Amino acid sequence: MPLRYHIVTFGCQMNVHDSEKMAGMLEAMGYSPAPDAESADILLFNTCSVRENPERRLFGQVGVLARRKAQNPRLIIGIGGCMMQQPGEVEKVKNELPWVDLVFGTHNLHRLPELIRRVQAGERPVIEVWQDSPEIVENIPVHRQSSLSAFVDIIYGCNKFCTYCIVPFTRGREKSRRPEEILAEVREFAARGGREVTLLGQNVNAYGKDLPGGQWDFGRLLLAVNDVEGLYRVRFTTSHPADVQESMITAMRDGEKICEHLHLPVQSGSDRVLRRMGRRYTADQYRALVERFREAIPDLTLTTDIIVGFPGETEEDFAATLRLVEDVRYDAAYTFIYSPRTGTAATRLRDHVPEPVKKERIYRLIQVVERIAQEKNDALVGSRQEVLVEGPSQHDPAMLAGRTRGNKLVHFPGPAQWAGNLKTVQIREAHAHTLYGDVVSHA
Ligand code: 5AD
Ligand code: SF4
Fold first, then answer.
1. Please, what are the domains in the chain?
2. pLDDT tens string 232-248
3. What is the pTM (predicted TM-score) of this model?
4. Residue 322, CB half-sphere, CA atoms under 13 Å: how many?
5. Of the candidates 211, 206, 279, which has an alpha carbon nearest to the alpha carbon of residue 244?
6. Which of 166, 237, 305, 362 to mutate to test the pocket of ligand 1 (most atoms within 8 A of CB)?
7. Is 58 close to ligand 2, i.e. is its CB under 6 Å away?
């Protein structure tokens, strides 16, 4: 019987895609996917350290494996990803989870097969974490979760050092992939019937800054991907407001496959807090930027990330965030309670906000965000939307699910063989996070 693998992924889309690469490498080694974690011969955890919660969950989940490992010593347990890049975490794993066989980081992901072979040969634990990656490793095999929609890395790391954020420490400095590599990957995916790509990076619109020649920026890359034959849609995430160039806005306006969705994290509506976060823009500059995007792309779906309870955030600062949300009117916002990350500058700031105050603020923020999301979706009732059909809905297998160009999830009746097609759906009912509709016949 072939050996089987299972991967547990925490964190962002970058991590989801890294797990697809882990799966690709494991399959190249002869492993096949296990139907569940219980039947796996190798169990990998791809960790996240952006907030405290995913960290706690990891120690809980790997903690309970002690018994399984005692019953089946041949089981290989590995931990990789962002958390392992943080000082002290590897030691903590060694001390608290001694049944872990393998530890690796974000920069040496491509070394996974070699590290697993060493574990198989009897070396335990195998621990290898690199502080940085000397160069981008290309051609890692990848097992994509979907044949329809693909994540494609365009830039790794981040140079921004926002004072709350661990990413520059776990993922290193910005490194753009060469455009030829990106385009080759997109072309190959499209040639095999892929319909949609999401260009990935912690900071996609810093793309090209570090490439020799200064010929490429994010706007140019977007238009080049837009020209790939066979593809229906191009998406990207995440953008930084301070790195937006005119070429990005015009590419979104002119590229017919580039979807009208922008995820533009604002983090706070208070200039004082934005300054202390090191965000490099004021709330009014952000508002003006949104105006520029909306002028060029009138039906833009806009989403964001917001942190509440950053050190020193007063009630007045928080009120400024609520005002900004009311002004900008996001289609959706991911809201987070500030979580101190060891090694980041914000941990040294004074006036940490008490937990109950943070909770009360996030609750008030969510009320506003949800009300506006509902209002924005209500406005779509009766409209016709181009939907890329993904397949049967996870919530209701009798229905199909797909996304509008603005990235809104729509449920509608139809046969499963529509998966992969574009359909025109007339919206009948709106909730804050989902739409319901019916396919309009093409007669
Ligand atoms: N605490 C809370 N939220 C954070 N984020 C990043 N770091 C922290 C932190 N220390 C949020 C930001 C970012 C999103 C991915 O996670 O809003 O945009
Ligand atoms: Fe988490 Fe950031 Fe790593 Fe993504 S890059 S997995 S959000 S720590």
1. 4-128 (3.40.50.12160), 152-258 (3.30.750.210), 260-379 (3.30.750.200), 384-442 (2.40.50.140)
2. 999 999 999 999 999 99
3. 0.96
4. 16
5. 206
6. 305
7. no
